Amino acid sequence: MFEYVIKKSKFFGYMFNASDVDKIKEILERLKKEHKKATHITYAYSIKTPFLEKAVDDGEPSGTAGKPILNVIHQNNKVNILLVVVRYFGGIKLGAGGLLRAYSKTASECIKLDFDN
């Protein structure tokens, strides 16, 4: 897990190995229970066989959360992966560019942590 704080908003990044949609649904349900008070639980995944990709903004402005997370997956050539970023709103709006940067950074740092292991 990676934690990033910007303008009082907290972003928690999680990365999971996931090769099927059922496992992804199970992980997302667990995170939703764990983070009941989160403002947004955004995510993206890429599965190799059968090829499936999805990016979810979960109420954030379109293209500011799920798509940047999916871009990080592509940039790192990852497959069979689920990246989730949980946001707790801190009361200060970040704007579309700020959101895009925050979600991208959280996802990127999450993948870097995996590389270090």
Task: Indicate the topology.
Blueprint: E1 2-6, E2 9-17, H1 21-34, E3 40-47, E4 52-56, H2 66-75, E5 81-88, H3 95-116
Antiparallel strand pairs: 1-2, 2-5, 3-4, 3-5
What would you say this structure looks like, in words?
It is a single chain. This protein is α+β, with helices and mostly antiparallel strands and 117 residues long. The chain has a single domain (2-116), classed as Impact, N-terminal domain (Ribosomal Protein S5, domain 2), CATH 3.30.230. The protein is built from 3 helices and 5 strands, in the order ββαββαβα. The chain has helices at residues 21-34, 66-75, 95-116, and strands spanning 2-6, 9-17, 40-47, 52-56, 81-88. It has a 5-stranded antiparallel sheet with strand order 1-2-5-3-4, sandwiched between helices. It is globular. The chain starts with a strand and ends with a helix. The mean pLDDT is 92.
Ranges with pLDDT <50 over ≥5 residues?
Answer: none
Note the overall shape.
Answer: globular
- Specify the biggest β-sheet: 5 strands, antiparallel
Radius of gyration of CA atoms, rounded to a whole number:
13 Å
Helicity, as a percent range:
25-40%
Please state roughly what percent of the residues sit in beta strands, choosing from under 5%, 5-15%, 15-25%, 25-35%, 35-45% or over 45%.
25-35%
Instruction: Quickly count the helices.
Output: 3
